[in-house]
Amino acid sequence: MRFGPSKMGDGVKQLLIANVAVFLLSSITGMSVLADWFGLNPHDVIFNFRVWQPFTYMFLHGGFWHIGMNMLMLWMFGSELEKLWGRKEFLRFYLITGAGAGVFSLVPYFLGVLAGYSGHIPSIIGASGAIYAILLAYAVTYPDRKVLVYLLVPVKVKYLMLIMGIMTFVSVGNGDGISHITHLGGLVVGWFYLLRNGRYRGLNIPWKQWVQRYGKIRIVGDPKSPQPQRSTPSSTPKGWHRVSSEAQLRKEMDGLLDKITRVGYEQLSNTEKERLLELSSQLSKEGERRN
């Protein structure tokens, strides 16, 4: 069994280097120096106009395990997403969802100030908001893939993400020193980003297929409802041909992914984009049958 992705993309590599470099710098200068200016402090952002903090806080980490777990998740799940989306789109998603999670974290404090709260809260640091968004994107793109929880229990990614989302929601405000509101913000911002850009920015999210799969109920007599068409054995399939062998499926998928790496997803034709979604779905089913 292979552990982790087979190849790390340039975008993931650049993020790893940036995070590790900042962590080493904070180890030399002291975290308090950097956290004061570059950590996310809601009071400083709102009242002292340190508007850069929602972008810089995600590169600071409070300890080895903090940065270690975040970078491990970035490598494991981000590498495959970057291979599918391309470096530019992956970095855009990471930075937007990370910053968006930071802005989301400002809302409770702002509402508290309006209600009369005047206390101080510590700064928020860490890339977890962006990492939660990456986990969400991976779960939506490859919902039936399995991961080993605690290296023992195989769980489909879609169920693991659902459990994590529920636990994050119920943990907001429990005072354990973890900014669960930032994690929740990463999920919320990531979801809306995927919903808005899923079919047009290179993200492998088969919304159309899902709607067709679960939206089979038709209103009887509705003139707008399309009538089913029966296919005949003699009909010639149009567009991409079907490939029965898994090896051929993977070969064709690799060819499309290589083209994305060379020219970017947006340069694919509509037929190639649809075929990419179809191949992903077929390979997921093949993997599920083997398991």
Briefly characterize the structure.
Helix content is 63%, strand content 3%. It is mainly α and 291 residues long. It has a two-stranded antiparallel ribbon.
Describe this entry's structure for a reader.
With 291 residues, the protein is an all-alpha fold. It folds into 2 domains: 10-197, Rhomboid-like (Rhomboid-like fold); 243-291, no CATH class. The chain has helices at 10-29, 31-38, 42-47, 53-56, 64-85, 87-114, 128-141, 157-171, 180-197, 207-214, 246-263, 270-290; strands spanning 146-149, 153-156. It has a two-stranded antiparallel ribbon. A hairpin with a 3-residue loop joins strand 1 (146-149) and strand 2 (153-156). Helix 1 packs antiparallel against helix 5. The two termini are 13 Å apart.
Largest sheet: 2 strands, antiparallel
Structural class: mainly alpha
**What's the CATH topology name of the largest domain?**
Rhomboid-like fold
- Please state roughly what percent of the residues sit in beta strands, choosing from under 5%, 5-15%, 15-25%, 25-35%, 35-45% or over 45%: under 5%
Percent helix: 55-70%
Number of domains: 2
Continuous helix count:
12
CATH class of the largest domain: Mainly Alpha
What would you give as the CATH superfamily of the largest domain? Rhomboid-like
CA-based gyration radius: 22 Å
CATH architecture assignment of the largest domain:
Up-down Bundle
Mean pLDDT: 78
Distance between the first and last residues' Cα:
13 Å
General shape: elongated
Elements, N to C (H/E): HHHHHHHEEHHHHH
Beta strands, count: 2
Low-pLDDT ranges: 199-204, 217-225, 230-244
Adjacency order of strands in the biggest sheet:
1-2
